[in-house]
Every structure is written in structure tokens, then in C-alpha cells.
Design goal:
Elements (H helix, E strand, L loop, with lengths): L1 H13 L6 E7 L6 H15 L3 E7 L6 H11 L3 E6 L5 H10 L5 E4 L11 H9 L4 E9 L4 H17 L8 E8 H7 L9 H7 L4 E8 L11 H15 L2 H31 L6 H33 L7 E5 L1
Bound molecules: uridine-5'-diphosphate (UDP) and magnesium ion.
The site of uridine-5'-diphosphate has 16 residues, from strand 1 and helix 4.
Length: 324
């Protein structure tokens, strides 16, 4: 029995892969998740290869996240820590990690253990079959409210309708990408970064891997509804100018309606003469048009604001310290 166990062990060793894996995890106030995350990821990676790193990005945390990460780095220097100069938000934090990892295969993942690292071997299998991107699609979301699921559903439906890239539904940043994809991705330096969209936009062979999304291990989500709403607008404006077209067509539509209405009023006046009343309809028309004008100006503003931010060409982030 024992010799068989040894044999099994050797077999695993012989089968170990020769490529370097980078797991990239942004962290913002995640002190209680770091060690459990590390333990689970380490176990999975050790089974696959001896060449791996976990790149953790401290996104300006206010709790003990950085201290714990640095401590972990001193114990196991395969855990690299990038300490950003302040909180830049998840998309930028992830970008910082992607810019600073050296793997042949790169896996962005959340540090709260909502994305099960045990999926990584399956991702690698799919990659070996010739896919460049293996994205994990949630078939079930544990611990999320109905409203969150419903709004997420509506968002994906909408964004896929108005953009011509395919942003997969129920898919976060958890995925495996290979070096080729990462190098392409690194050329996209826009300030407004909707990572899921960028991952799709680069193309290559992409395949979905279904999984059940777990509850957060500890702590709370950093995304409230206001943030999610803004995130959705970011996604839409980053990948589509359809709202601008909507403004134009809506303008045409209202003008057409106004023309028909004008003909009606002129004919009515010619036939029946003019009567003074008409205040309510006048008021409604003015308010309606005023509203439409403000909305369309707002839509234009959303884009102009983003142009403004992009033309500044600021660096995406600053690194305070690196622990290699
Ligand atoms: N995160 C980050 N910076 C932020 C907000 C979040 O790096 O400003 C990280 C966070 O630590 C976690 C991941 O992004 O690893 C996803 O965040 P969260 O779990 O709050 O989002 P949810 O899973 O609820 O969508
Ligand atoms: Mg989470």
C-alpha cells in the first residue's frame, strides 16, 4: 500500500508542469482573508508546478492588509506585494498586478475567496486545448441578493446589445490568460478601465468555464449600488457610443412628432379658429423637451468627461513599495 502511495506521489511530480503561473489578487481591506486565501491557492499551485508566484496588490487598505501581506512575503517570497500609493479602485489595482507579474499563465482572482482557486487546474486543461483565455462563468451566486443578480443580468443584456464585443454574462475578472493575451492587454493604457470589457476586446481564443460563486470568506463587499451603477456606466461608455446615437435619434423622433403636431395645430386653428387655452399642453411640452435636452447634454457630458480624463495621460497608478 505504502509503495503505491509513493508511486502516486512520484507520478504527480513527474506530471508537474514546466510553466510559470502568476496569481494576481487585488486587496482592499482584506486582512482576514489573506492567510486563508494563501493557503488555498498554495495548495492548488503546488500540485501543478513548482514555479509560481502570488502577486498581491494592496490598494490603499486602511486595515492591517499591508502588514499581513508583508509578513507573508517574508515567510514565503513567492508572495509578491505591490503597495499602491493610495486606493485606486479594483480595475487599476488589477492592472498594477498584471503589469508586475512574470507568469506564462496569469490568473486574476479576488482575494475574498469568492473565486475558488481549485478551478485553476481545469482552467489549465482548457488552456492546453488551445484556448488563450479561460474565463470563469458563475452559474450560481451564493450570498448575493436577488436585486444584485437581477441588475447584473439586465446590465449584461444591455451592454451586449449596444456593443459589438461580446462581454460574457455572469463573469468577473476571475480567469486564466496566457502571456500573449497579457502582452496585448498591457498595450491598452486607457484611464477608464472596465477590465472585463478589455479582456474581451483583445480577442484570441476564449472559452467559458462554469462554476458556483461562493460567499465572501470574511469582510464585506466594497461595491454598493451607487458604485455598481457607476461601474455599469463605465462599461457602457468605454465600449459603446450608442448612447450618443440614441440622443441623436431621439432628437429626430421628437422633431418629427413636433412637426406632425404643428400641422395638426395649424389645421385646427385654420378650421376652428384660435382659442387661448392650451397652457397645460404647453407646459408639458416645454418640460418634456427641457428634460430631454438635459438628458442628452448629460450623455454628451459623460463622454466629454472621459475624453478629458483620457487626454491628461496620467500614469494609471503609483507604487509606494514593492516586496519581491
Ligand atoms: N478591491 C480592490 N480595490 C477596491 C475595491 C475592491 O482592490 O477599491 C478588491 C477586493 O479586495 C477584492 C476584489 O477587489 O479582492 C473584489 O471586491 P469585492 O469582493 O468587494 O467585490 P464583489 O465580489 O462584491 O463584486
Ligand atoms: Mg467579492
Amino acid at each position: 500500500m505504502e509503495s503505491q502511495g509513493l508511486f502516486e506521489e512520484n507520478k504527480v511530480k513527474i506530471n508537474k508542469k514546466n510553466y510559470f503561473i502568476s496569481v494576481v489578487a487585488p486587496a482592499y481591506n482584506e486582512q482576514d482573508n489573506i492567510y486563508p486565501f494563501y493557503e488555498r491557492v498554495k495548495k492548488v499551485l503546488d500540485d501543478i508546478t513548482d514555479k509560481w508566484e502570488i502577486v498581491c496588490i494592496n490598494d490603499g487598505s486602511k486595515d492591517k492588509t499591508l502588514e499581513i501581506l508583508v509578513e507573508l512575503n517574508s515567510k514565503d517570497n513567492r508572495v509578491k506585494v505591490i503597495d499602491l500609493s493610495r486606493n485606486f479602485g479594483k480595475e487599476i489595482a488589477l492592472t498594477a498586478g498584471l503589469d508586475n507579474c512574470k507568469g506564462d499563465l496569469i490568473i486574476p482572482i479576488d482575494i475574498d475567496l469568492q473565486d475558488p482557486p481549485e478551478l485553476i487546474p481545469e482552467m489549465i486543461k482548457l488552456w492546453e486545448q488551445g484556448n488563450n483565455v479561460v474565463y470563469a462563468t458563475r452559474i450560481k451566486r451564493e450570498g448575493e441578493t436577488f436585486i444584485k443578480k437581477f441588475t447584473a443580468y439586465m446590465f449584461y443584456k444591455f451592454i451586449n446589445k449596444i456593443t459589438n464585443i461580446n462581454i460574457p454574462r455572469n463573469t468577473g475578472d476571475f480567469r486564466l490568460i496566457d502571456r500573449k493575451v497579457l502582452d496585448s492587454l498591457k498595450e491598452l493604457r486607457e484611464t477608464h478601465r472596465f477590465m472585463k470589457g478589455l479582456f474581451s476586446w483583445v480577442g484570441f481564443n476564449q472559452v467559458s468555464l462554469p462554476y458556483v460563486r461562493e460567499k465572501r470568506f470574511a469582510g464585506n463587499t466594497k461595491f454598493n449600488y451607487w458604485k455598481l451603477w457607476n461601474f455599469a456606466i463605465e462599461g457602457i461608455t468605454s465600449f459603446s457610443i450608442a448612447p450618443l446615437k440614441f440622443a441623436t435619434y431621439f432628437g429626430f423622433f421628437v422633431s418629427l412628432f413636433a412637426a406632425v403636431f404643428a400641422i395638426y395645430i395649424i389645421s385646427k386653428t385654420l378650421i376652428y379658429g384660435s382659442d387661448v387655452p392650451g397652457y397645460p399642453s404647453l407646459m408639458v411640452t416645454i418640460l418634456f423637451l427641457g428634460g430631454i435636452q438635459l438628458i442628452t447634454i448629460g450623455i454628451i457630458g459623460e463622454y466629454i468627461g472621459r475624453i478629458y480624463n483620457e487626454v491628461k495621460h496620467r500614469p494609471l497608478y503609483f507604487i509606494k513599495n514593492k516586496y519581491d
